Amino acid sequence: MRLFLGLDPPEALRGELAALAIGLPGARWVEAGNLHLTLRFIGEVNPAEAEDLDAELATLTAAPAPVRLQGIGTFGQGRRMNALWVGAEKDPALVHLHGAVENAVVRAGFPKETRKFLPHVTLARLKNPDRARLEGFIGAHNARAFAPFTADAVVLYRSHLTRDGAQYEVLERYPMRS
Ligand code: 3AM
Fold first, then answer.
1. Minimal-distance CA residue to ligand 1 atom 17
2. What's the CATH number where 73 sits?
3. Is position 98 annotated as part of the catalytic site?
4. Are 118 and 24 in contact (CB under 8 A)?
5. Which residues lie closer than 8 Å to 143 by C-beta, 6 or more apart?
6. 36 has catalytic annotation
7. Alpha-carbon distance 56 to 127, whole Å?
8. What's the domain count of the chain?
9. Could you tell me if 69 and 149 are in contact, meaning their C-beta atoms sit under 8 angstroms apart?
10. What angle in degrees, to the nearest 10, is found between the helix axes of 92-107 and 47-57?
11. Whose CA is nearest to atom 7 of ligand 1?
């Protein structure tokens, strides 16, 4: 199965984010129920690896972290632009939480993540987006601050790749404790 670890924004905030999903040709919007902030992509694992991961995550110690979403960004350049997201402030507690999760994943036997942590919630996958509309979208929402929330659990998601895009299933929640 294909796994990743993340944070799930409260339902009301997911609703607000999902309400941004208008007027952008070339965007395939993430459904409200699938919106998340990825802490660590794991990938395909076998049952034994999943068990090792679960055992390490169960011992996770980190304080609850504030998550403040603000600022619209994209991944990929030009015609390769492939994702539209809202960024999260790099609060020290969130950075610490990310580090604790990374350590647990490495202790479970997975390779270290080499890419730097850029906390974000992906709003849409992009395919040849209309540039003017995209700039309009960014201009309209870039300065907007969403209601902050406290991440008090790390969520283990299973990703189901379907013809209609990925669907994410919550397998486990690991509550924060310091
Ligand atoms: O949080 P977002 O939606 O930006 O892009 C994938 C998604 O990120 C990312 O993991 C999240 C859940 O699928 N992802 C998918 N494959 C990946 C890979 N091979 C990956 N991240 C890193 N390496």
1. 41
2. 3.90.1140.10
3. no
4. no
5. 70
6. yes
7. 38
8. 1
9. no
10. 140
11. 38
Taking Cα atoms as reference points, which of 119, 63, 121, 118 lies closest to residue 96? Answer: 63
40/174 Cα distance (integer angstroms): 14
Q: Report d(CA 9, CA 27) in Å as an integer.
A: 21
Provide the residue range defining the domain that includes 106: 2-175
* pLDDT string in tens for the chain (178-residue length): 999 999 999 999 999 999 999 999 999 999 999 999 999 999 999 999 999 999 999 999 999 999 999 999 999 988 889 999 999 999 999 999 999 999 999 999 999 999 999 999 999 999 999 999 999 999 999 999 999 999 999 999 999 999 888 999 999 999 998 8
Q: Is 159 in the pocket of ligand 1 (CB under 6 A)?
A: yes
- Among positive and negative, which fits the CA dihedral 66, 69, 70, 73? positive
Count Cβ atoms below 10 Å from residue 94 Cβ, excluding itself.
23
Rounded to the nearest angstrom, the distance between the alpha carbon of 81 and the centre of ligand 1 is 15
From the CB of 4, is ligand 1 less than 6 Å away? yes
Report the separation in Å between the CA atom of 42 and the middle of ligand 1, taken as the mean of its atom positions. Answer: 9
CA distance 147 to 21: 18
